Amino acid sequence: MARNDGIDRTFARNQDLPTLDDVAKVQEHNEREKDSYSNQDIDTTQTYRNIHFKAPTDSYAAMFDQMIADGVISTRGLKADAVKYGELIFDVNSAYFHNHGGYEYAKQFYTDAYKAAVEIVGGEQYILSAVMHADERNRAMSEALGQDVYHYHLHVVYVPVVEKQILWSKRCKDKSLVGTVKETIMQVSRSKKWESKVALDEQGNPLLTSKGKKVLRTSYSVLQDDFFNYMKAAGYTDVERGERGSTEEHLTVTQFKVAQEQQRLEAVTAQIVQTERVLDTAQAAVEKKQKELQSLQKQTKEQRTTALTVQEIRSMGKKTITGNITLTPSECSTLNDYAVYGTLSKEENSRLKEKLQSAQKSAAVWKQRYESLKEQARPYLEAVKLAPEKVRAFLDAILTRTRQTRHHDQPSHRKSQDVEL
For the chain, how are helix, strand and coil distributed in percent, rounded to 5? Predict the structure, then answer.
């Protein structure tokens, strides 16, 4: 996606399709098999402009099965939960095509990009579908320019394969054949297709760390390099490679907006949760101080009922001829005790009242912030209230796909090698 810095960049993303349900959903989206879409930026009146560089002859799953039957690919030794499908998405920011003439220029660009995809995949026979989407409107640019601007990008669904040699085993009757190549198959293998590669220097020698370990280039970095280098060799010298060392990956227009809204929702939700916690703490503090004040007031009341009355205190002592009051040692001690206790009680009561007022003000502030954040999150909360299952399923799907993509693009940690992002 465009970074709004005036620089046009190529982006290439490899996405795993781990389940048949994922494959079916991608097929629905890529082949525009639905009558309507939740993505409001898909303009179905422009779908006729989408271009297939390789059109599917059947469903993706049926084509996969036929490739096995024809011996084009092999699933020998493949685990039941192994990833069998992948999708490459090639993209340049919308402004690049708009500034170069739009649709016609995009057609030529992605014609060449498809050739790059064939090389990256390892052969056109392993591609199930390749389609350039020209019907997804870039809303921001359209509104800014006052005309329809479309985001052109290429989807390539493929089967990840690697060449594997099957050797004659020791059980072979002809011992001279043991260890030699019996047959060569194109094995379905996502992990081997996208394993990290050793980084080389200008002389073609492996790059080493200060500790002598080989430096690895992640599969995502290799893909970005291969796509950029191919397009540059094809004559597109006015674009730059997607930012090196970044974990940023290409997202389609819909995915990008969903991801942005999801991040915003998560941030607002986190703020609400934090505010609720602080508010609860403040309210708890208020309640605690109120209880302390009530307890003190109760103690004071009880003490007043058991203490000497004012009249009794005033009646203490005897007036002398000179007008002075004389007290017995016992009366003097009692008055001193009550004077000290009364002063301390008054100070403690005043201190607790100040804390109570402070806690009440703090609670009011946090409550106001909470209400503000809650209002910001209202559209999401209403969506959850109206269709909780759909919203939950929608967000779970986004987070699951994001975690899977990050997981597959994470460099493998090996004891003898270091990884370069």
Answer: 55, 20, 30
Let me know: does 64 contact 78? Beta carbons within 8 Å. Answer: no
- Pairing of the two strands 240-241 and 9-17: parallel
The CATH code that applies to domain 9-250+396-420 is 3.30.930.30
Question: Contact 293/352 with Cβ under 8 angstroms?
Answer: yes
Task: State the amino acid at position 283 in one-letter form.
Answer: Q
When pLDDT is cut at 50, 70 and 90, the band that residue 40 belongs to is confident
Instruction: Give the Cα separation of 191 and 45 in Å (integer).
Output: 40
313, pLDDT greater than 60: yes
Cβ–Cβ contacts within 10 Å for residue 235, how many? 10
Q: Which residue has the tokens 């890529």?
A: 30
Q: Which of helix, strand or coil describes residue 407?
A: helix
Q: What is the pLDDT of residues 124-170, one digit of tens each?
A: 999 999 999 999 999 888 888 889 999 999 999 999 999 888 887 88
Q: In what order do the strands lie in the sheet with 240-241?
A: 51-54, 127-133, 153-158, 85-92, 9-17, 240-241
Q: How far apart are CA 243 and CA 47, in angstroms?
A: 31
Which structure tokens are listed for 174?
Answer: 């002809």
